Each structure stands twice: as C-alpha cells, then as structure tokens.
Amino acid sequence: MEVLIGFRTTHLIPANGAIEIKFPANSTLVPNIKTHCRSAVTMGSQLYGQNTGKPATNIQGEVGCYVQNTYSWIITGNDALPAGSQVYISGVIDMPTIATTSLGTGYVVTYIGEDSTNTFANSRIIDYTTATFMLNVNTSTWYPDESAVTFQTQPLRASFTGDLTFLVRTATAITANNGFVQLFLYTEN
Amino acid sequence: MAASTASYYVSYMMTPFETLSSGVDYTFRITTQNNFANEGIPFPTSRGVYKAESKISYSSGNPQVISNTFYIEVYG
Fold first, then answer.
1. How do residues B36-68 score in pLDDT, each as one tens digit?
2. In this structure, is residue A145 part of a structural domain?
3. Residue A144 domain flag
4. Alpha carbon of B32 to those of B29, B38, B39, B41, B76: distances in Å?
5. At CB < 8 Å, which residues of chain A contact B?
6. ipTM of this complex prediction, to 2 decimal places
C-alpha cells in the first residue's frame, strides 16, 4: 500500500544532505518497505535534484530513496532545501499482518550528509522528530449493501389481474413483528 | 393499480411474523382472497413502464429505511 509522510523542516538541509524516514522496527506491523518513493515540497514542486551547473540554472536529477537497515528510507541526492519547507514523501510498504490503528512510533531525521551503512549512527543530525505513524487497518470484510427487491415480469400484461410476486434479500435481518417491507406501485413512471 | 394520468400509488405493508435472515432470498406474493374467480391485483389497462418503490425497515430500533426505486414494464 502507498503511504504519505509529511513534515516541515526546521533548518536548511544542504545539498548532499539526507532525509531519513524510519518506520517502527516491527516485522508484524511493517513487514517490508519498498525502495520506490516520490517526493514533493509544499504539495507542489518536486524535491529537486542537485544543480548540475549545465546550464547554471538547471536543476535536475531524480531524487530517490533507498532502504537502509530494513526499516528506513534514506532520501538523498536533493538540492539544498530551505528551512520551513513542507516536505511530503510517498512510497510503498507492505500491509501489517494484524488489525491495527497505528504502525507504532517512527521518526524523521534530516542530516548534513549520509552514510552508506548507517546514516543515523554515522552522520550529523540537523533535525529530529518522532511521531506515531497512524494507520487504520481493519479485519472486517467489506460487503456492498445487498438489499434488493426483484419483480416478476412475465405475467405483467395490460388488464391482467393476478398475483404479484417479488423477491427480497436484505443485508440485515428484518426483525419479526417489528421491521417491515413496504411496496409502492405508482400509476405513472 | 389502475392506469391513470393522475399520480397516485397503492402501497402494501408487510410485517413478518418471524425474523427474516440476512442474505436469504424471500419471495413475497401479493394477492387477494375474496373467493372470486379472478383474484389478484388489477394491473394497468395500458402498456407502459410504471414506477415502483420498495422500502425496508429492519426494526423499530433500527429505523433506517432502505429505499429502492424500480421500474416494471406492463406489456400490451
């Protein structure tokens, strides 16, 4: 399933910095996170790649995220990100294997650089925040409302007098001596 | 139900003596018992498509009424 994580930067993240989205380390609630994600800043532009300098104003490149230590997305390769930027990261994780309303406590960290094996331990932290990763996963099965009434059609000829039969199926039981089925037959369409 | 240009309807209210389970097909049959030869509901004398509505209330404690609109065709 796709999840969206948003946060606002307190301080500037320089080019060559990194963003870490750390999911709760719980294989039941977060069985797997995928290496594919997308980003946006202030719900509009992309989180730009670094300035290539060719031409000087050309900022391009794809910002990606890779999975580090099973539960973290590391987003790198972005250009400098000003303080106060509203950032959204959207990516794919596997569904929890149990019903839950929360994935547990995770955190979002920004860094001045990155590390190929453990960014959290080996890189300098700029901002750090923890949050409950909310999610509503229910075990109930979704049923469409199956209440229906079906009429016979064959004997309905003009001037016919006879029985009218119809079929009723409801999604909820109709209580004896209490609920009702009411049928209205109109004289025009 | 008589054919007419006037907009009116007849309604039939059915309250079950036993609880009707969910997910089960129940056949309802509307007829008359006058001990005459031609029992039943008189249908319109002219062909056409006529509107019908059904309303279902599960119980007085669950007063939500499910309403469906249908169109039944009376052939000439």
1. 877 888 888 888 888 888 888 888 776 667 788
2. no
3. no
4. 10, 9, 5, 7, 23
5. 145-149, 151, 153, 156-189
6. 0.82
